[in-house]
Structure formats: C-alpha cells, structure tokens
Amino acid sequence: MIEYRYPEEKTVALFFAELLQDSVAMDILERGYVTTSEEATHLSKFFWAMVEKSAQEPELPCEASSESWLEKLYNSFGGYLFEKGYEQQWDDEIDNA
After folding, report:
1. How far from 55 is each of 41, 48, 61, 81, 94, CA to CA, in Å?
2. Looking at the whole model, is its pTM more than 0.70?
3. Alpha-carbon distance 11 to 17, whole Å?
4. Which of 19, 8, 83, 17 is closest to 45 using CA atoms?
5. Rounded CA gap, 3 and 68, in Å?
6. Is it the case that residue 96 has pLDDT exceeding 90?
7. Angle between the 66-83 and 87-96 helix axes, to the nearest 10 degrees?
8. Which residues touch 14 (CB under 8 Å, ≥6 apart)?
C-alpha cells in the first residue's frame, strides 16, 4: 500500500486526479497500490502532471501550499515505488520531467 505520512496527501492526490481527469491515477490512488510496471509508470507521470498543474495555483482542499504537498507526495510515491521494485519507472519519469 502507498503509505502517506499525512492523510491530506491522499486527499490532494485525489483532488489532482479529478482536476486532471485521470481515471487511471484515481483507480491507483483509491486502491492504494500499483499492479504492473505500466501502472507504476502512470503513477510517476501523474506526479509530474500534478506538478505542472500546480503552476496554475488551483485552490487545494486542505491547508498549505501545493509545493508543500507535492514534496510530501514525491517522497510517498517515490518511496513506495522503490520499495515495490519500480524504481526504474520512477527514475525514468524524473529524467523526463
């Protein structure tokens, strides 16, 4: 399971999934884990799509800045993917960002 340090992280991630109309990310986030390397790549790409969308300064559903929550999500998503053996997918998308 994706372990969040703060429950608001999941709220913010789901907010961006809805904002970006990303049903695959929504499914992964609601399920709490990835099942394939393709989903790991999708979650990685979704993270960077959130970063890009945050530049438009959407009103988040919780306190603190987008930057703060994205930093936390970077650690949560990256740590989870590394732990599950999907570090290459995560690293590839960092390189592509």
Report:
1. 22, 11, 16, 25, 18
2. yes
3. 10
4. 17
5. 17
6. no
7. 140
8. 26, 29, 30
